[in-house]
Specification:
4-stranded antiparallel β-sheet; single chain; membrane; flagellum; Flagellar motor switch phosphatase FliY; Surface presentation of antigens (SPOA); about 25% helix; FliN-like_C; about 375 residues; cell membrane; Chemotaxis protein chec
Amino acid sequence: MSNGFLSQEEIDSLLNGGGLSPEPPQEEILSDIEKDLLGEIGNISMGSASTALSQIINQQVNITTPVVSVTTLKTLKDSFQVPNIALEVKYISGISGENLLVMKIADAAIIANLMMGGDGKVDSHELSEIEESAVSEAMNQMIGSAATSMATMFAREVNISPPNSKIWNDSTTQLTDKIDENEDIIQVSFRLNIGDLVDSTIMQILPVITAKKIVSIMMGTETQQVEQPKPIEQKIEPQVRQSYEISEPVQAQNYSEPAQARYTEQPQQPPVEVNKASFQPLRESGSASMPRNIDLILDVPLEVSVVLGRTKKSIKDILNLGTGSLIELDKLAEEPVEILVNGKIVAYGEVIVVDENFGVRLTSIVSNAERVKSLSQ
C-alpha cells in the first residue's frame, strides 16, 4: 500500500481470497443415478417382501416410496425413534456384505398379534419372547423374498445367512459388530401400510461397499478378478520307427566332414488277426418263466390308520383348548371314514364295535386311478 491506496497486486490478492486457492469439493459417496437405482431395486425387492408378509398375517400389506440417503449408525441412533427391532442378515453368495432391516416395536407388536390369530389392535411397546421370535421369522421371510427378487434381477443366485434379531432400546445398543458407528452407510427408508392398522416406516441399512456392488451388477460394470489358467505342461514323445546313433560329434564350424551315422531299423510288429463277430440268433422267451417276487415282501409291516375327519384351527384356538373342549370335524356322522396305508387312501369303511373295541368294516376299495392320484399328493 502506498499513499493510502491499494496496489493492483493487493486488489487481485483480495479478490482471489487472499491468495489461497479454494478447496476442491468433496466427491459424493453416491451419485443421483446410483441413488435412483438403489431406490428402484429396493422398491421391487420390498414389493416381494410385502407379498410374503401379507400371506403370513392375512392382511393387505404395501411397502412403497423408498428414500435413499447416506448417514452413519451414530447419527441414525441419535435421530431415530426407539425402541425398534433390527434383523441382521449377511449375503453369503451373489452379493457380499451385511444387511439390516429395522422396524418399530409398535409395528412389530401388531404383526406378532396378527400372526397369533389376533385382530392386531394392541397398544404394547414391548415384545415377549414368543412375539419377538414370531416377528423375527416374519422379517426373515421378508428378507428371503427380497433376496429371491434380487436374484431374478441380477440373473444369479443370492443367498443369505440365518438371521440375528436384536432389540434397539437406546443409543447405546450395538446393532452390529460388522459396521462401525462412524462409518458411512446407506439408509433406504420405506413406507409401510398394513390394512388400517399400520401406517409407518421401515428401513434397510446397507454398507457402502454392498450398495456399490449392487449398483455395479445392475449397471453391468462389475469387475471380477479372473484367475489366469496355468499352462499345461505336455510331455511329447514322438513315435519314431527309425533310430540314428551318432558316433562322432558334429562340428558346427566345419561342414566339409560329414558325421558318420549308423542306421538301425526297428523290427516290424506281427500282423493282428481280425475276425468278424458272430452272435447267437435271438429267440422269444415266454413270460411264464418270470418269477413272482411278491412273496419276498409279504412280511413287510405297513402302518394302517383310520381318519374320522379333519379341521383347521388357528394358534389362538389351539392355545385355548382345554379339558372338555369340542372340536367339530369336516365330516358328517354317517359319512364313511378313510382307511390309509402309509398315509395313502386305499379304502373307505364304517365304524363298528366288536367286543367292546372299535373296528372298521370296509365298504369300498378305491380304484387304481384314485390310488395313483393319492400317490402324487
